[in-house]
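Q: Convert this sequence to structure tokens.
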Amino acid sequence: MTSLGRQSYRVLMIAPTSFFADYGCHVRILEEARALQKLGHRVTIVTYHNGGPVADLDIRRTLPIPWRTDYEVGSSRHKIGFDGLLGLKTFELLVRERFDVIHAHLHEGALIGVVLGRLLRKPVVFDFQGSLTGEMIDHHFLDRDGGAYKLFRWVERWIDHRARVILTSTVNAERLLLDEFGCAPEQIHPLPDCVNGEIFKPAAEYPAAELSMLRASLGIPVERKVIVYLGLLAEYQGIGFLLQAMQRIVQDHAGGVHLLLMGFPNVEYYQGQATELGIRDFVTFTGRLPYQMAPTYLALGDAAAAPKLSLTEGSGKLLNYMAVGLPTVAFDTPVAREYLGQDGLFAVPGDADDLAKKLMLALSVSVSHQQTGQRLRERAIQHFGWDEAGHRIVAAYRHLMGDPGAPARSRQKHLETNK
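A:
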């Protein structure tokens, strides 16, 4: 039984990715599973062969593909093979073990879930984190003017319409499903990304000596202010524009600023770009950073950058920045405004000069910008907590299974009062 005295569900989560890999959608899958377990539900995650272990989760993996041993990040032709094996593994689990609900992440997981759910009469929840074709275009895997675009767009629409309940990671995603894909309002249950405010906390809550030692180990000079970025290193994440903005900052402010660039892949590529721009001594690359280490590293920051260019995907890193109390600069997108509200600093998308100006504004020493960071943390704690998200997921399950006491459609209060 759950803490609310209701039925305890056996949940099979389909994760079509190399779970766990310390970024984006992986964090959402991880924290959703933990929130459900905290409420007394049993969660099994079926995922690709590659990926890091998580001690408190039941993870089942596919067979390996001999010619592909790397982690899969974003769109890739190799994912066809991975998803085929994932479908077989999911079918095996559904036949051998008892599950009450299939919780399918991303469109590939939803396709597997919808087909097998219909075959084996299992209810399916689709955890939508952005447009499939939008992501393919962002990753340069698909050309909007190419012949394959219409086919993949049709497949995406077909998947969207076959899921009776869709959890959306942003309100912008809800609008996308309603306006562009014609989904019914009753299908959609908004469930924005969340953050653990007890783990991600301001620098003032750490021993000063601990942060000082970490800063020294990274080779960041004491006199420099630090801009932090945590996430994937890719062009659609705006990393190229962030490095160009850093070049402007270094030139205009005599090297008093340092960029702590945390994430993967493409580390060597962006190191080369930083060298070409003449800023290599002002950028520290950490490479892949374990999720449990992220809070302390973010606490080194004086400001945070989120120059993501995608118009359809979520941006959970913003919530981490907010919980740490960092003044945050993002490219002006609907998702960024949804999370940051009135306290975000927004640069013109794709404009390195404006990004540099906004970052310097975030670094300015003033009471107003300190208060901005405090308000962002308060906003994250008040509106984006995982415990509340767990209850909303369970409410979606109950609705899907016809529980007469379940709400017809889960809503997020802050999403309607935040416009």
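Residues 1-5, 412-419 have pLDDT under 50 and may be disordered.
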